[in-house]
Amino acid sequence: MNKKLCVIFYNKYNLREKDYFPKVYFLNLLTRKLEEHNYRIILLKSDYPNEIKKIKEKIHLLLNFEDYYIRFSREFHSNMNLKQVYKFFVDLEKSGTKIYPPPKFHIYTNSKKYALQIYKKKEFVLPHSKTFLLKKTKLWEPIIKYCKKLNKLCDFIVIKVSFSADMIDIFYIRNNKSKTIRNKFIEYEEFNKVIQLYNSYIDKDELDLVIIIQPYNIIVSNRLTEYRLWFLDGEFVNYFCHGPIKENDKIRLLDNVKYNPQNKIHFELVSLANKLYKFIVSKNKNVKILALRLDMSYAIDDIFIDKYSKIINNQKYRFYCNEMENIDGTFYINIPILNTITNKKEDTSFFQNKLVKILIDNLT
Description:
- Helices cover 30% and strands 27% of the residues.
- It is α/β, with parallel strands linked by helices.
């Protein structure tokens, strides 16, 4: 009996060997289960389109644990622009290859096109935040007008662009020059630098960009107050990830933290995330979402307080979604969970087991 072929996009993150994903336990488990279902595996680490073209036999299943729509990842794009990359994977899917995440849903999350929907639902985003769809016509006038409005309300404006990662192409516009900020910033008078850069992306990649404008929330700059919630097959997995942190030019992974429903911040974060997850599913009825990560945060500054705020211990909190990730954002899930009640670390192998089962049950 001929074996079917599964291609897995391997991890590109420059972490320690034991932190790679898929790696060690997960990779061994995933490949073993796929082999039991009559698959043989090819792992690809870079230059995906060109490497795929070299494979002369039919690819039955392609699993992607990478951001393959990141603008600067040319070594993974075979020097294609993003429009060509997107078409490549759509065409591969049309040829009969089952791809997860599907190209259309992957571009929905990675290009931040979800923001065009959730920013219309005010409870999911920070007050005074807005998104713009920047097309090849380069309509900057409404963006500049909105930034001028925020310029009068707050010290910093954050401008995020789609197809970005790791603080690349995220600008902090500094309005009050008496304040400082550690992240990349420009003076408001230098706004043309942002315009020129983003226009060049549209010209080069031939795809529309989603521009997100919002006041700067200092709380979210702390990794420990950005709560990353994983949903597997529609259910929250009962712990938060906090991601990598850079200290003394070294990257380390912060402990995952077990969900504590008695913790009111935990409770409100999960309640809002559950509501948002259902909203995203309702907007993607043609896709079965197997794994999704919602990055949730809160703010307490007066500028962010509105009718959706919650009072906890006499303090008003405004909870919101900071970002959304597909299955590609999974590279640190194999670290232990810290139970803050018992102060003991617990194993996370149940996550990998459940994720593998979901992939096998739905894709093979």
